[in-house]
C-alpha cells in the first residue's frame, strides 16, 4: 500500500513539475500549441449569439456585429430583434 501511495505522489509531482516548466517557458503570454505551418492562416473562432456554439469565422454567418452558427439562428435572432 505504501508503494502505491509513493507511486501516485511521484506521478503527481512529475505532473506539476511539467506544468511549472511549461508556464515558465511561456514568456509571451500566448497559449502554447502546435506551430502553424508556413502559408497557413490562423482562423478566429466566433460564438453563436443564439446558441453559444463555437464556429470558425469562415463558416459563421455575420449579421451586423453578431455571429451565428447558421442562417436559421441569424434569421430567428434578427426576427426577435425587429418584431
Automatic annotation (TrEMBL):
InterPro entries for this protein: PP0621-like (IPR049708)
Domain of life, per lineage: Bacteria
NCBIfam families (alphabetical): PP0621_fam
Protein name as it appears in the record: PP0621 family protein
Taxonomic lineage of the native organism: Bacteria, Pseudomonadati, Pseudomonadota, Betaproteobacteria, Rhodocyclales
Amino acid at each position: 500500500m505504501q508503494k502505491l501511495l509513493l507511486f501516485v505522489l511521484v506521478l503527481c509531482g512529475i505532473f506539476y513539475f511539467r506544468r511549472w516548466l511549461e508556464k515558465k517557458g511561456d514568456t509571451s503570454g500566448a497559449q502554447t500549441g502546435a506551430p502553424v505551418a508556413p502559408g497557413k492562416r490562423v482562423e478566429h473562432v466566433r460564438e453563436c449569439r443564439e446558441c453559444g456554439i463555437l464556429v470558425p469565422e469562415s463558416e459563421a454567418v455575420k449579421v451586423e456585429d453578431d455571429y451565428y452558427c447558421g442562417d436559421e439562428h441569424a434569421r430567428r435572432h434578427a426576427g426577435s430583434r425587429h418584431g
